[in-house]
Amino acid sequence: MLNIALFGPPGAGKGTQSEYLIKKYNLAYISTGEILRNELKSESELGLQAKAVIERGELVSDEIIVQIIEKFILEHQNAKGFLFDGFPRTYIQAYILEGLLIKLHSSLFALLNINIDDKEATKRLIKRGIDSGRSDDNVKVIENRLVAYHKKTVPVLDFYKEKGNLVNIDGIGSIPEIQNRISESVEKALSKQWINVVLYGAPGSGRATYGKKLAAKFNLVYISTGDILDKELSNKGQFSQEIEKYMNKGSHVPDEIVVRLLEQRIAEKPKAKGFLFKGFPRTMIQAYILDGLLRKHHTNISTVINFNVPTLDLISRLEKRGKTKDAMPYDKSIESIVQRLREHEQKTSLVLEYYKKQEKVIDIKGTLSKEETYTKLKQIINKELTQNHSL
Ligand code: AMP
Fold first, then answer.
1. Average model confidence (pLDDT) across the chain
2. Which in 113, 139, 295, 376 has the greatest CB count within 10 A?
3. CB of 87 closer than 6 A to ligand 1?
4. Which residue has the least CA distance to atom 14 on ligand 1?
Protein backbone atom coordinates (compact mmCIF):
# COMPACT_ATOMS: atom_id res chain seq x y z
CA MET A 1 0.00 0.00 0.00
CA LEU A 2 1.09 3.51 -0.72
CA ASN A 3 -0.46 6.05 1.62
CA ILE A 4 0.21 9.74 1.21
CA ALA A 5 -1.19 12.80 2.99
CA LEU A 6 -1.41 16.23 1.41
CA PHE A 7 -0.72 18.96 3.90
CA GLY A 8 -0.67 22.74 3.74
CA PRO A 9 -2.77 25.77 4.62
CA PRO A 10 -6.16 26.22 3.00
CA GLY A 11 -5.54 27.35 -0.56
CA ALA A 12 -2.19 25.55 -0.90
CA GLY A 13 -3.50 23.57 -3.86
CA LYS A 14 -4.03 20.19 -2.17
CA GLY A 15 -7.24 19.42 -4.05
CA THR A 16 -5.72 20.49 -7.38
CA GLN A 17 -2.55 18.44 -6.97
CA SER A 18 -4.47 15.43 -5.69
CA GLU A 19 -5.70 14.58 -9.20
CA TYR A 20 -2.21 13.88 -10.46
CA LEU A 21 -1.26 11.67 -7.50
CA ILE A 22 -4.51 9.69 -7.65
CA LYS A 23 -3.94 8.86 -11.31
CA LYS A 24 -0.24 8.19 -11.10
CA TYR A 25 -0.36 5.84 -8.09
CA ASN A 26 -3.92 4.63 -8.40
CA LEU A 27 -4.93 5.87 -4.95
CA ALA A 28 -8.30 6.20 -3.26
CA TYR A 29 -8.77 9.91 -2.52
CA ILE A 30 -10.33 11.14 0.67
CA SER A 31 -10.84 14.81 1.37
CA THR A 32 -12.46 15.29 4.77
CA GLY A 33 -13.41 18.85 3.81
CA GLU A 34 -15.18 17.69 0.64
CA ILE A 35 -17.04 14.94 2.47
CA LEU A 36 -18.13 17.42 5.13
CA ARG A 37 -19.35 19.87 2.47
CA ASN A 38 -21.41 17.09 0.88
CA GLU A 39 -22.86 16.17 4.26
CA LEU A 40 -23.77 19.82 4.77
CA LYS A 41 -25.43 20.01 1.38
CA SER A 42 -27.49 16.90 1.98
CA GLU A 43 -28.34 18.19 5.47
CA SER A 44 -27.44 14.83 7.03
CA GLU A 45 -27.20 14.51 10.80
CA LEU A 46 -23.43 14.63 10.57
CA GLY A 47 -23.62 17.67 8.31
CA LEU A 48 -25.89 19.48 10.73
CA GLN A 49 -23.58 18.64 13.63
CA ALA A 50 -20.58 20.13 11.81
CA LYS A 51 -22.33 23.08 10.13
CA ALA A 52 -21.74 25.87 12.64
CA VAL A 53 -18.09 24.89 13.23
CA ILE A 54 -17.26 24.83 9.53
CA GLU A 55 -19.03 28.13 8.95
CA ARG A 56 -16.88 29.72 11.64
CA GLY A 57 -13.74 28.29 10.00
CA GLU A 58 -12.89 26.15 13.02
CA LEU A 59 -12.05 22.46 13.10
CA VAL A 60 -14.76 19.84 13.55
CA SER A 61 -14.34 17.25 16.28
CA ASP A 62 -12.01 14.26 15.97
CA GLU A 63 -15.02 11.97 16.58
CA ILE A 64 -16.68 13.19 13.39
CA ILE A 65 -13.46 12.99 11.39
CA VAL A 66 -12.74 9.43 12.54
CA GLN A 67 -16.27 8.37 11.59
CA ILE A 68 -15.72 9.77 8.10
CA ILE A 69 -12.29 8.22 7.58
CA GLU A 70 -13.24 4.79 8.97
CA LYS A 71 -16.31 4.64 6.75
CA PHE A 72 -14.27 5.56 3.70
CA ILE A 73 -11.54 3.02 4.44
CA LEU A 74 -14.14 0.31 4.97
CA GLU A 75 -15.76 1.13 1.63
CA HIS A 76 -12.38 0.98 -0.14
CA GLN A 77 -10.87 -2.15 1.32
CA ASN A 78 -9.20 -3.16 -1.91
CA ALA A 79 -7.55 0.20 -2.48
CA LYS A 80 -3.89 0.20 -3.53
CA GLY A 81 -3.37 3.09 -1.17
CA PHE A 82 -4.99 6.25 0.14
CA LEU A 83 -4.45 9.90 -0.56
CA PHE A 84 -5.54 11.96 2.43
CA ASP A 85 -6.40 15.61 1.89
CA GLY A 86 -7.14 17.74 4.92
CA PHE A 87 -6.29 14.95 7.34
CA PRO A 88 -4.39 14.69 9.67
CA ARG A 89 -5.12 18.25 10.68
CA THR A 90 -4.18 18.10 14.37
CA TYR A 91 -1.38 16.41 16.29
CA ILE A 92 -3.96 14.00 17.72
CA GLN A 93 -5.20 13.15 14.23
CA ALA A 94 -1.64 12.14 13.29
CA TYR A 95 -1.80 9.46 15.99
CA ILE A 96 -5.30 8.51 14.85
CA LEU A 97 -4.04 8.02 11.31
CA GLU A 98 -1.16 5.85 12.52
CA GLY A 99 -3.64 3.69 14.42
CA LEU A 100 -6.07 3.39 11.52
CA LEU A 101 -3.26 2.38 9.16
CA ILE A 102 -1.84 -0.17 11.60
CA LYS A 103 -5.23 -1.84 11.32
CA LEU A 104 -4.52 -2.13 7.58
CA HIS A 105 -0.98 -3.42 8.30
CA SER A 106 0.31 -0.28 6.67
CA SER A 107 1.36 3.27 7.52
CA LEU A 108 1.81 6.70 6.04
CA PHE A 109 4.52 6.81 3.41
CA ALA A 110 4.87 10.58 3.30
CA LEU A 111 3.25 13.80 4.37
CA LEU A 112 3.61 16.26 1.50
CA ASN A 113 3.69 19.74 2.93
CA ILE A 114 2.79 22.29 0.24
CA ASN A 115 4.17 25.58 1.51
CA ILE A 116 2.55 28.95 0.85
CA ASP A 117 2.39 31.97 3.14
CA ASP A 118 -0.79 33.48 4.61
CA LYS A 119 -0.86 36.35 2.14
CA GLU A 120 -0.81 34.02 -0.83
CA ALA A 121 -3.36 31.70 0.84
CA THR A 122 -5.75 34.60 1.47
CA LYS A 123 -5.39 35.88 -2.10
CA ARG A 124 -6.12 32.44 -3.56
CA LEU A 125 -9.04 31.70 -1.23
CA ILE A 126 -10.77 35.00 -1.97
CA LYS A 127 -10.47 34.25 -5.68
CA ARG A 128 -11.78 30.70 -5.16
CA GLY A 129 -14.70 32.11 -3.16
CA ILE A 130 -15.64 34.31 -6.10
CA ASP A 131 -15.15 31.54 -8.70
CA SER A 132 -16.75 28.62 -6.87
CA GLY A 133 -19.01 30.26 -4.34
CA ARG A 134 -17.59 28.16 -1.51
CA SER A 135 -19.16 29.73 1.54
CA ASP A 136 -16.14 29.42 3.84
CA ASP A 137 -13.95 31.26 1.31
CA ASN A 138 -14.77 34.75 2.59
CA VAL A 139 -12.42 37.18 4.33
CA LYS A 140 -13.65 36.68 7.91
CA VAL A 141 -13.79 32.87 7.75
CA ILE A 142 -10.47 32.68 5.87
CA GLU A 143 -8.82 34.54 8.73
CA ASN A 144 -10.21 32.04 11.24
CA ARG A 145 -9.16 29.08 9.10
CA LEU A 146 -5.61 30.38 8.96
CA VAL A 147 -5.60 30.92 12.73
CA ALA A 148 -6.77 27.33 13.22
CA TYR A 149 -4.14 26.18 10.75
CA HIS A 150 -1.26 27.81 12.62
CA LYS A 151 -2.47 26.91 16.06
CA LYS A 152 -3.74 23.37 15.58
CA THR A 153 -2.52 22.05 12.25
CA VAL A 154 1.10 23.19 11.98
CA PRO A 155 2.19 20.98 14.96
CA VAL A 156 1.41 17.95 12.74
CA LEU A 157 4.61 18.83 10.87
CA ASP A 158 6.70 18.06 13.96
CA PHE A 159 5.12 14.63 14.20
CA TYR A 160 6.26 13.63 10.73
CA LYS A 161 9.55 15.50 10.88
CA GLU A 162 10.41 13.36 13.87
CA LYS A 163 9.25 10.24 12.06
CA GLY A 164 11.36 11.16 9.06
CA ASN A 165 8.67 11.12 6.39
CA LEU A 166 7.92 14.81 6.01
CA VAL A 167 8.42 16.12 2.47
CA ASN A 168 8.44 19.90 1.97
CA ILE A 169 7.28 21.31 -1.34
CA ASP A 170 7.40 24.92 -2.43
CA GLY A 171 3.78 25.73 -3.31
CA ILE A 172 4.45 28.93 -5.23
CA GLY A 173 4.42 28.51 -8.99
CA SER A 174 2.21 27.23 -11.77
CA ILE A 175 0.16 24.05 -11.30
CA PRO A 176 2.44 21.96 -13.60
CA GLU A 177 5.55 23.32 -11.86
CA ILE A 178 4.28 22.25 -8.47
CA GLN A 179 3.14 18.93 -9.89
CA ASN A 180 6.70 18.33 -11.11
CA ARG A 181 8.10 19.13 -7.69
CA ILE A 182 5.67 16.71 -6.09
CA SER A 183 6.41 14.01 -8.63
CA GLU A 184 10.18 14.34 -8.16
CA SER A 185 9.93 14.30 -4.37
CA VAL A 186 7.65 11.27 -4.26
CA GLU A 187 9.79 9.35 -6.74
CA LYS A 188 12.92 10.22 -4.80
CA ALA A 189 11.35 9.08 -1.55
CA LEU A 190 10.08 5.89 -3.21
CA SER A 191 13.50 5.05 -4.58
CA LYS A 192 14.85 5.15 -1.04
CA GLN A 193 12.21 2.70 0.13
CA TRP A 194 13.22 -0.83 0.86
CA ILE A 195 11.37 -3.83 -0.33
CA ASN A 196 11.50 -6.67 2.16
CA VAL A 197 10.74 -10.13 0.97
CA VAL A 198 10.55 -13.27 3.04
CA LEU A 199 11.56 -16.37 1.10
CA TYR A 200 9.43 -19.00 2.72
CA GLY A 201 9.57 -22.71 2.04
CA ALA A 202 10.82 -26.08 3.19
CA PRO A 203 14.50 -27.07 3.06
CA GLY A 204 15.27 -27.95 -0.54
CA SER A 205 12.52 -25.74 -1.96
CA GLY A 206 14.97 -23.44 -3.76
CA ARG A 207 14.94 -20.38 -1.51
CA ALA A 208 18.72 -20.01 -1.43
CA THR A 209 19.33 -20.70 -5.12
CA TYR A 210 16.74 -18.22 -6.32
CA GLY A 211 17.26 -15.78 -3.44
CA LYS A 212 20.94 -15.28 -4.32
CA LYS A 213 20.15 -14.98 -8.02
CA LEU A 214 17.43 -12.38 -7.38
CA ALA A 215 19.63 -10.42 -5.00
CA ALA A 216 22.36 -10.17 -7.64
CA LYS A 217 19.93 -9.24 -10.40
CA PHE A 218 18.03 -6.52 -8.50
CA ASN A 219 20.75 -5.22 -6.24
CA LEU A 220 19.05 -6.49 -3.12
CA VAL A 221 20.68 -7.93 -0.02
CA TYR A 222 20.23 -11.65 0.53
CA ILE A 223 20.06 -12.42 4.23
CA SER A 224 20.21 -16.02 5.32
CA THR A 225 20.42 -16.38 9.08
CA GLY A 226 22.06 -19.80 8.64
CA ASP A 227 24.81 -18.27 6.50
CA ILE A 228 25.22 -15.35 8.89
CA LEU A 229 25.75 -17.74 11.80
CA ASP A 230 28.25 -19.81 9.78
CA LYS A 231 30.12 -16.66 8.82
CA GLU A 232 30.19 -15.44 12.40
CA LEU A 233 31.72 -18.78 13.40
CA SER A 234 34.31 -18.90 10.65
CA ASN A 235 35.29 -15.25 11.22
CA LYS A 236 35.51 -15.92 14.96
CA GLY A 237 33.21 -12.92 15.49
CA GLN A 238 32.09 -11.57 18.87
CA PHE A 239 29.28 -14.12 19.21
CA SER A 240 31.18 -17.12 17.82
CA GLN A 241 32.02 -18.77 21.15
CA GLU A 242 28.43 -18.58 22.32
CA ILE A 243 27.09 -19.84 18.99
CA GLU A 244 29.48 -22.77 19.14
CA LYS A 245 28.26 -23.66 22.62
CA TYR A 246 24.65 -23.93 21.43
CA MET A 247 25.51 -25.74 18.23
CA ASN A 248 27.64 -28.29 20.11
CA LYS A 249 24.67 -28.99 22.35
CA GLY A 250 22.58 -29.45 19.21
CA SER A 251 20.22 -26.66 20.26
CA HIS A 252 19.06 -23.58 18.37
CA VAL A 253 20.97 -20.35 18.68
CA PRO A 254 18.82 -18.01 20.80
CA ASP A 255 16.98 -15.11 19.17
CA GLU A 256 19.04 -12.58 21.14
CA ILE A 257 22.12 -13.52 19.13
CA VAL A 258 20.39 -13.99 15.77
CA VAL A 259 18.73 -10.59 16.07
CA ARG A 260 22.00 -8.84 16.92
CA LEU A 261 23.61 -10.35 13.84
CA LEU A 262 20.62 -9.45 11.68
CA GLU A 263 20.75 -5.87 12.91
CA GLN A 264 24.46 -5.71 12.09
CA ARG A 265 23.90 -7.06 8.61
CA ILE A 266 21.12 -4.55 7.90
CA ALA A 267 23.20 -1.68 9.26
CA GLU A 268 26.09 -2.65 6.96
CA LYS A 269 23.89 -1.89 3.94
CA PRO A 270 22.49 1.62 4.32
CA LYS A 271 22.09 2.01 0.56
CA ALA A 272 20.23 -1.25 0.04
CA LYS A 273 17.14 -1.28 -2.15
CA GLY A 274 15.79 -4.09 -0.10
CA PHE A 275 16.31 -7.40 1.65
CA LEU A 276 15.49 -11.00 0.90
CA PHE A 277 15.18 -12.99 4.10
CA LYS A 278 15.83 -16.72 4.08
CA GLY A 279 15.52 -18.95 7.13
CA PHE A 280 14.02 -16.14 9.18
CA PRO A 281 11.38 -15.86 10.56
CA ARG A 282 10.94 -19.47 11.57
CA THR A 283 8.67 -18.91 14.56
CA MET A 284 5.90 -16.48 15.42
CA ILE A 285 8.25 -14.79 17.87
CA GLN A 286 10.72 -14.23 15.05
CA ALA A 287 7.91 -12.92 12.82
CA TYR A 288 7.12 -10.30 15.47
CA ILE A 289 10.82 -9.55 15.87
CA LEU A 290 11.19 -8.96 12.14
CA ASP A 291 8.13 -6.67 12.12
CA GLY A 292 9.69 -4.69 14.95
CA LEU A 293 13.10 -4.56 13.36
CA LEU A 294 11.74 -3.31 10.07
CA ARG A 295 9.46 -0.80 11.76
CA LYS A 296 12.52 0.67 13.40
CA HIS A 297 13.67 1.42 9.86
CA HIS A 298 10.24 2.80 8.85
CA THR A 299 9.50 -0.15 6.65
CA ASN A 300 7.77 -3.52 6.73
CA ILE A 301 7.42 -6.86 4.95
CA SER A 302 6.36 -6.19 1.39
CA THR A 303 5.72 -9.73 0.32
CA VAL A 304 6.27 -13.37 1.24
CA ILE A 305 7.18 -15.79 -1.51
CA ASN A 306 6.05 -19.27 -0.66
CA PHE A 307 8.06 -21.93 -2.50
CA ASN A 308 5.43 -24.62 -2.61
CA VAL A 309 7.18 -27.86 -3.54
CA PRO A 310 5.46 -31.25 -3.09
CA THR A 311 6.98 -33.25 -0.22
CA LEU A 312 8.05 -36.20 -2.40
CA ASP A 313 10.00 -33.86 -4.67
CA LEU A 314 11.64 -32.28 -1.62
CA ILE A 315 12.74 -35.66 -0.31
CA SER A 316 14.21 -36.58 -3.66
CA ARG A 317 16.02 -33.21 -3.98
CA LEU A 318 17.48 -33.38 -0.48
CA GLU A 319 18.58 -36.95 -0.95
CA LYS A 320 20.42 -35.89 -4.12
CA ARG A 321 21.91 -32.88 -2.34
CA GLY A 322 23.19 -35.27 0.33
CA LYS A 323 25.58 -36.66 -2.23
CA THR A 324 27.04 -33.27 -3.16
CA LYS A 325 29.37 -30.81 -1.42
CA ASP A 326 26.33 -28.71 -0.41
CA ALA A 327 24.99 -31.54 1.75
CA MET A 328 23.47 -30.54 5.08
CA PRO A 329 23.88 -32.92 8.02
CA TYR A 330 20.20 -33.97 7.85
CA ASP A 331 20.47 -34.88 4.14
CA LYS A 332 22.23 -38.15 5.01
CA SER A 333 19.20 -40.44 5.33
CA ILE A 334 15.57 -40.41 4.23
CA GLU A 335 14.60 -40.69 7.86
CA SER A 336 16.44 -37.55 8.91
CA ILE A 337 15.18 -35.71 5.82
CA VAL A 338 11.58 -36.55 6.71
CA GLN A 339 12.23 -35.52 10.29
CA ARG A 340 13.61 -32.14 9.15
CA LEU A 341 10.67 -31.55 6.81
CA ARG A 342 8.22 -32.42 9.54
CA GLU A 343 9.93 -30.02 11.91
CA HIS A 344 9.74 -27.28 9.28
CA GLU A 345 6.04 -27.81 8.80
CA GLN A 346 5.22 -27.91 12.48
CA LYS A 347 7.33 -24.93 13.47
CA THR A 348 6.84 -22.51 10.61
CA SER A 349 3.32 -23.07 9.33
CA LEU A 350 1.96 -20.50 11.81
CA VAL A 351 4.32 -17.94 10.33
CA LEU A 352 2.89 -18.57 6.88
CA GLU A 353 -0.63 -18.24 8.26
CA TYR A 354 0.33 -14.94 9.87
CA TYR A 355 1.44 -13.53 6.52
CA LYS A 356 -1.53 -15.06 4.69
CA LYS A 357 -3.87 -13.16 6.96
CA GLN A 358 -2.08 -10.00 5.88
CA GLU A 359 -2.55 -11.04 2.24
CA LYS A 360 1.19 -10.89 1.67
CA VAL A 361 1.80 -14.44 0.45
CA ILE A 362 2.47 -15.27 -3.20
CA ASP A 363 2.70 -18.96 -4.03
CA ILE A 364 5.31 -20.33 -6.40
CA LYS A 365 4.34 -23.76 -7.60
CA GLY A 366 7.16 -26.28 -7.26
CA THR A 367 6.00 -27.97 -10.42
CA LEU A 368 7.18 -25.09 -12.63
CA SER A 369 10.43 -25.44 -14.58
CA LYS A 370 13.53 -23.57 -13.37
CA GLU A 371 13.12 -20.95 -16.09
CA GLU A 372 9.42 -20.47 -15.39
CA THR A 373 10.11 -20.14 -11.68
CA TYR A 374 12.84 -17.55 -12.18
CA THR A 375 10.70 -15.54 -14.64
CA LYS A 376 7.81 -15.51 -12.18
CA LEU A 377 10.11 -14.47 -9.33
CA LYS A 378 11.60 -11.65 -11.38
CA GLN A 379 8.10 -10.40 -12.14
CA ILE A 380 7.20 -10.40 -8.46
CA ILE A 381 10.30 -8.45 -7.45
CA ASN A 382 9.89 -6.03 -10.33
CA LYS A 383 6.34 -5.32 -9.30
CA GLU A 384 7.42 -4.78 -5.71
CA LEU A 385 10.17 -2.39 -6.76
CA THR A 386 7.91 -0.31 -8.98
CA GLN A 387 4.80 -0.29 -6.83
CA ASN A 388 6.80 -0.20 -3.69
CA HIS A 389 4.80 -1.08 -0.66
CA SER A 390 5.43 1.24 2.14
CA LEU A 391 4.98 1.36 5.83
P1 AMP B 1 -10.98 21.90 3.69
O2 AMP B 1 -11.81 21.67 2.48
O3 AMP B 1 -9.98 20.80 3.89
O4 AMP B 1 -10.35 23.26 3.74
O5 AMP B 1 -11.97 21.77 4.96
C6 AMP B 1 -13.07 22.64 5.16
C7 AMP B 1 -13.50 22.63 6.63
O8 AMP B 1 -13.87 21.31 7.03
C9 AMP B 1 -12.41 23.04 7.60
O10 AMP B 1 -12.29 24.40 7.77
C11 AMP B 1 -12.86 22.35 8.89
O12 AMP B 1 -13.90 23.02 9.52
C13 AMP B 1 -13.45 21.04 8.37
N14 AMP B 1 -12.42 19.96 8.33
C15 AMP B 1 -11.94 19.35 7.23
N16 AMP B 1 -11.04 18.40 7.55
C17 AMP B 1 -10.94 18.42 8.89
C18 AMP B 1 -10.17 17.68 9.84
N19 AMP B 1 -9.31 16.72 9.48
N20 AMP B 1 -10.31 17.95 11.16
C21 AMP B 1 -11.17 18.90 11.57
N22 AMP B 1 -11.91 19.65 10.72
C23 AMP B 1 -11.81 19.42 9.40
1. 93
2. 113
3. yes
4. 33
